[in-house]
Amino acid sequence: MMDVPLTTRTLIDRCLHLHPERPVTSLLIAGKNEAGQPVPGTHRSTLGEAAARAGQLAGALKDAGVAQGDRVATLAVNSSSHLEAYLGVSSMGAVIHTLNIRLPVEQLVWIINDAQDRVLLLDPMFLPMLPAFQANCPSIERYVVFGRDGAAPEGTQAYEAFIAGQPATFDWPDLDERSGAMLCYTSGTTGNPKGVLYTHRSLMLHALAGGHKSAFDIGEEDTVLPIVPMFHANAWGTVHCAALYGAGLVFTGVFNDGPTVARMLEQEKVTMCAGVVTVMLALLAELDRAGEAGQPYDLSHLNLIGCGGTAVPEALIRALHFRHGLRMMQAWGMTETSPLATTSNAPVGVDPASDEGFTHRSKQGRVMPFTEVDLIDDEGADVPHDGQTMGRLLVRGPWVTGEYYRRGVTGDFVTRRGKRWLDTGDIATLSPGGEVWVQDRAKDLVKSGGEWISSAEIENALMAHPHVAAAVVVAVPHEKWTERPLALVIPRGEAPKPEDLRAHLQGRVAKWWIPDDFVMVESLPIGATGKFLKREIRDQYRNHAWPAAGAGTG
Amino acid sequence: MMDVPLTTRTLIDRCLHLHPERPVTSLLIAGKNEAGQPVPGTHRSTLGEAAARAGQLAGALKDAGVAQGDRVATLAVNSSSHLEAYLGVSSMGAVIHTLNIRLPVEQLVWIINDAQDRVLLLDPMFLPMLPAFQANCPSIERYVVFGRDGAAPEGTQAYEAFIAGQPATFDWPDLDERSGAMLCYTSGTTGNPKGVLYTHRSLMLHALAGGHKSAFDIGEEDTVLPIVPMFHANAWGTVHCAALYGAGLVFTGVFNDGPTVARMLEQEKVTMCAGVVTVMLALLAELDRAGEAGQPYDLSHLNLIGCGGTAVPEALIRALHFRHGLRMMQAWGMTETSPLATTSNAPVGVDPASDEGFTHRSKQGRVMPFTEVDLIDDEGADVPHDGQTMGRLLVRGPWVTGEYYRRGVTGDFVTRRGKRWLDTGDIATLSPGGEVWVQDRAKDLVKSGGEWISSAEIENALMAHPHVAAAVVVAVPHEKWTERPLALVIPRGEAPKPEDLRAHLQGRVAKWWIPDDFVMVESLPIGATGKFLKREIRDQYRNHAWPAAGAGTG
């Protein structure tokens, strides 16, 4: 067979020649309202224009001395400009390094210095961080500011001026499919962030598999709205899938609130969107509100909502199905897995809208092609795939990283029977039919009386209560049992009483798993990737005074 | 990223663990009726059983001395046994060589000797050829006869006895994804047949891409009936797709007549089937017959009919749509391209059931991911992609062969700008939007007065006539114009008159393309891969007496 490498160059060709007219719609910041809040303006482009401008960007970067393997960083929300960087930087042989805009500037500085980025493409809203970068990031030779208005402060260049005059037809080089194409750092709740270098091969295999109907089901007839940020694990591959198969794209930029997302889903006839649980809870709240107000959104085009990042509550999947006729599919993965490792569909023969179907769909699902999972205990011994026994979840596959950037093979990897696996840090069960059920992050498990309690499973059960909008369960030190679970609950409507929640959990989780206390809160801290910050919550409640009634196991 | 190779081993794992219960239904020969015709019997198995028995087969082959890279040939129709060979032979590192059962025994002997096959797995019906193989094919050390009854003549072994006692859990080796996995010889209308060696990488990339909804749209919820033989370009990849994604499979064995296929489509609730034009014309005739008899088949589960091998008549696509509510998608490719190179879907925004939609769908469509096409003239110069100018169609991609087995880089390949392309032997146009329109095989073009006439386009137009069941147009020598087109027509119902057909073609093809004569025939010869044998027809009519009225260009 011909030795044709799998590279992102194919995206350029397909966008330019097969799907040039497919729309790319971006919400940009058009100005500010009286309250000083950004006001959206719609920018319309196409896949063909994005690919042509990607060629211009590649020409400008080459003229600026960017060579194969060099890192070009982005600090940007989702937009057509970010898409141009996705297509152009990797296809010219450089590495696009997507910085997480939600990180504090000190961490960004650390990451930029670790990655030795040579160019930074950034949205204007992040210009306040410029002095910190200029003072602390000597590797960056050039700052290029996205934005159609051409503004660029001292020491920076406007993106439009940077690419102006370059031909759209860049002389794309032949690349090794195993060379680096993208770089993303994990948010690193412990220790310093770690970089994951995606190769052309891994990205393109992920896109091939991700477009299948068992995964994100993306084709030319689709319009995709990745609410998940393009700086977060490649927007879960949705952008590459869209460019490969010719789907339209909708980018909401900074406007990711429930009402704006709902409006764009309706207005742009979006067929597929993807985002983390917290974003989808906000979307559900807006759909509920509109429905109750007698002005429901028309989302009849929306075939699939991809959701992940943390375990997806069954109640959320059910609510979207029964209240709004929408299909949510859970996917599991991590920055290290590109990220799609499993997708969760009811097995054939099981009605997806039956109780059994929802039970399946609330688990993390079955592996993608060429991906394998396994379980070990803390001593590295095999754990049975019986759907019952918890173990540390291992994963391997052609789009799973085998090392960290510049750090090599760290303690996050284990070698078993001659093969390297990534230890995900998740605790899971694995059914004989290959269904992964993540019980918890290893560090979030509650260790009570020598046994493990899955905080995720309790949270899932709590969120099935009609008056629970969100719930987080954390371990709190306990004199007798070492740790016991504490539930923090954001109420939906009238606040539920602890005894109601206790009764609700009876039969849904093991009796001794029922939290010893339930605290109503107005909000909970959310981290840089949209997940609840369990470590912070645990720290905040570590001296929680247990109710007098005595702990849990009764 | 981890260096995880793409090998067929993944099919074994997924069939065993993720999709073990998915059904595999085979029509076997249960006996003969009074007329001596074979009578079908239904054999039911599963993907899990097939994968387990593939492990047994691998064990038996290993014990028989088959090593990595050795060729294990099959001479068999579609069945669960053939599936076991697909899964087991390649995953153990050997090469499964699928012999075309329709070839004369002399050609099979030549091919076996060229491939140096060590084992031959064959259906009992081909035992009459055994003496010829035994006398002329010294490389074959072992003949293994498929069949549940355990019969095996002198010098052969029964398949069931061969694999009996072997464990289902073969110790599958780690393989290089670029090593050979399957071998298929082209039918070779000129010269000796040429072998195409598929690698694990090419087969698995083809399966990943082939399952997408822009191609064969195969997932766990599907049941696939490959009417296309498993010896013909890997059954177009449908079998690998099904094993990868967990679709059920239906094999009709020798029973590929319209009524049996239609009955199995209905009975097994098939969602996707695939076959060549001649087979689909027979299926259409049966659906028409049943409908007219007031006993239509219930094919409400059938979402997609894949068709290819030769240009698909627009009239066939329309008839299936309008008369039976069925969607036919044309795909183009060859043995050398695994075979999917293009798939033909109406571009987004065009109603597939509109005149414009059918026009698009009657062309060969747009390239699969990572596949490229181009056009050159006879001197190797660029031909514009204007949708008008004909040129020789070139193709390249990761599942396009770059050489022939044991023959290397023959004259079928051209190097342009440092890259190797396969010259397909097809004459085509290429639209600016990337749509391939095959006009003819280069050798089937009619050269009239220094210009090219596309026989395929005339055939397509003829078959839109209500009283034409099939049409073949060939070049016949002509004193003045060098060659002129002659049409051979199989009538549907009342035979049309030449002047009716001439009138019908007015406006549908260029005036000077209209054949100079129309001959009604009862049948036309069909070759080993189900295509009309144009060379034979041309030879038969090369002395055709033109009607007195004088030739064509008037």
UniProtKB/TrEMBL annotation, chains A, B:
It comes from Deinococcus carri. Gene3D superfamilies: 3.30.300.30, N-terminal domain of ligase-like. Residues 42-405 form the AMP-dependent synthetase/ligase domain. Keywords: Ligase. The keyword Aminoacyl-tRNA synthetase does not apply. It holds the Pfam family AMP-binding_C. This is 3-methylmercaptopropionyl-CoA ligase. InterPro entries: AMP-bd_C, AMP-bd_C_sf, AMP-binding_CS, AMP-dep_synth/lig_dom, ANL_N_sf, ATP-dep_AMP-bd_enzyme. One of its GO terms (molecular function) is ligase activity. Residues 457-531 form the AMP-binding enzyme C-terminal domain.
